[in-house]
Amino acid sequence: MIAIIDYKMGNLRSVKNALSRLGAEYTVTDDAAAIVAADKVLLPGVGYAAQAMANLRERGLVDVIRGLRKPVLGICIGMQVLCRYSEEGDTPCLDVFDTDVRLFKASEDLKVPHMGWNSISNLDSKLFKGVDEGSYVYFVHSYRPGLCQDTIATSRHGDLFSAALKYENFYGTQFHPEKSGDVGEKILSNFLAL
Amino acid sequence: MVAKRIIPCLDVNEGRTVKGINFVSLRDVGDPVELGAHYAREGADELVYLDISATHEGRHTFTKLVERIADHINIPFTVGGGISTMEDAERLLNAGADKISVNSAAIANPQIIDTLANRYGCQFVVSAIDAKLTPDGRWLATTHGGRRLTDKELFAWAHEVQERGAGEILLTSMEHDGVRQGYPCELFAQLCSQLSIPVIASGGAGSIQDIADVLTKGKADAALAASIFHYGTYKISEVKKALAEQGINVRL
After folding, report:
1. How many Cβ pairs within 8 Å bridge chains A and B?
2. Which architecture, in CATH terms, is A2-192?
3. Which CATH number is B224's domain given?
4. pLDDT tens, position by position, for chain A (194 residues)?
5. Is residue B251 situated within a structural domain?
6. Are A17 and B71 an interchain contact pair (Cβ–Cβ within 8 Å)?
7. Distance in angstroms (rounded) separating the CA atoms of residues B12 and B59
8. Residue in A closest to B117 by C-alpha
9. Which of residues 59-88 of B touch A (CB under 8 A)?
């Protein structure tokens, strides 16, 4: 059973649909006991980082998530809150991944939000088994995590940033595997197979 | 680098795709889900579904359809057509749409863009603008499929929707739409270099070179087309391969 954490950060429908297409059983919950009991945990979400942290605190989930020892996958804002700190609302985060999340600097050549299909490189994890270097995945974000020792994939929008991170049992993707076509489905199925 | 996007647009009337020929690989080309999945397999980067139903019943069918699209399609999709209230937008968001496009509703009530962007993020809001060239040489936004001119000058309106929080602009030149003689590249280049949000070029593609031109000379971030894909003039995979051969960054 996969627990999808529902902390009121955007619509969960596309994540649920993606798991259904892969034949995975899931439950949508903000209940600590259900999250701890699940085999794997998904932390999705779109929105504002400081709000995401506030919603996790309000539900008493900060220590629950940090204490998980099973595979956890944060997607988009769910990945960002697993970092040390986010500039978006100047908020401390869960401090799992060893990096901070900062705003892209827009310029004439650099549109923000970073929206659309971009390629991922330096793939270094079982999460990317069978995924080619330079594969395209779908991003929608204005803040991005920096490079660090936990980086398992990079992408470039202006600077290089972490497209995916891993620390022990924690994984995170800045992109949306649930919207990234067949490549995204492969990544999700790799996570389910961990 | 972000890839330039190729986006087929599907018109939906009472739950069925309207234009189109019979693709040999498809059982039911009138089924928007099956046709969309076909385009996704061919390499479409996103899909746009436009509801052109005139009836209340048709609107209801469209919402049900959006749920089915969300269940089956694994790339982002935008829905538009007849979104005039927050309730319409929320209904489609809850049905699973990744983005909604607003046109006449935003002209009538620009505040709807702010409200939608604040509540659901700017990535959710596509501002569709149908522009027409007036005899005195100004580009104005229109409504009702180009039949009604508004007082909104294209460039000022595009800046305004960006300031209000639109995440993208979908610009159609009513002078070029349906003519299949290419996009107005100078107009697009001028607009794209002024804005910080992505611009999708729509209306006018008759050949692969037209698409290549609007993505390079026109500086557009994406090209949307209907006829050339529906009538099978070109396959999406064929278009993207040709663009890549010209050095344009596309997802293959």
Report:
1. 77
2. 3-Layer(aba) Sandwich (3.40)
3. 3.20.20.70
4. 999 999 988 778 899 999 999 999 999 999 999 999 999 999 998 888 999 999 999 999 999 999 999 999 999 999 999 999 999 999 999 999 999 999 998 777 788 889 899 999 999 999 999 999 999 999 999 999 999 999 999 999 999 999 999 999 999 999 999 999 999 999 999 999 99
5. no
6. yes
7. 10
8. A47
9. 70-72, 74-76
